[in-house]
Design a protein that fits this description.
seven-stranded mixed sheet, Rossmann fold, 7 strands
């Protein structure tokens, strides 16, 4: 059994923001799973079913991003799921928009959702990283992260969400190494935003997200 966690903030104000891309990928997965519905449990909304023939439980923490660790830790403990089978889907400033990467473990990289999850279950949990790119010239990191997709990004977002969902399915059905071999490859990004050499968000800024 895998626990699949999509990170985001609850409420309509955050629905289509970059920081909520974990929630967006979960919605894609639920559609693929025949419209599985999530119900409130342990500080999140949760549902169990089959993804590509593999048993999974899906969770969206509803405690806001910087308190994601509570629902994730409580659910993993209740279900007896070890950290190496807790797959977290999250936005990543350090990847160009739409880039998908699978990762076995690691630090939080300034992401407060990952930071709080690490406090509960440690850092040895896999992730699917969804690139949101760096902010434009003169744009604050917090405005970029909590802002909606641009018109240009909207043209490609559904394709990228489908690819992220495919990375999740490959991880739980084929294994993490196979998923990494399939998705951790360079994809031409001529139509995407290039990575920018701007400073990493400070903890003070990211603490609000």
């Amino acid at each position: 059994m895998w626990l699949i966690v999509g990170l985001g903030n609850p409420g309509p104000a955050y629905l289509h923001t970059r920081h909520n891309v974990g929630f967006s990928v979960v919605r894609q997965l639920l559609t693929q799973m025949g419209g599985l519905r999530l119900r409130p449990a342990l500080g999140g909304v949760v549902g169990s079913g089959q993804l590509g023939g593999a048993p999974v439980t899906i969770c969206q923490p509803m405690t806001y991003m910087n308190r994601s660790g509570g629902p994730v830790g409580d659910l993993a403990e209740a279900l007896g799921i070890p950290a190496h089978q807790v797959l977290v889907i999250h936005d990543d400033l350090d990847l160009p928009f739409g880039t998908i990467r699978c990762k076995k473990r690691g630090g939080h990289g300034g992401h407060n959702g990952l930071r709080d999850i690490a406090r509960r279950i440690g850092r040895d949990h896999p992730r699917v990283r969804f690139g949101i790119g760096r902010p434009g010239e003169g744009e604050a990191v917090s405005d970029h992260v909590l802002g909606p997709w641009s018109d240009k990004e909207q043209l490609r977002i559904n394709d990228h969400l489908s690819r992220a969902a495919a990375a999740v399915e490959a991880t739980v059905t084929l294994g993490l190494d196979a998923a990494m071999n399939q998705f951790n490859v360079r994809v031409p990004l001529a139509a995407e935003h290039p990575p920018r050499k701007t400073p990493r968000a400070s903890d003070e800024v990211r603490e609000k997200t």
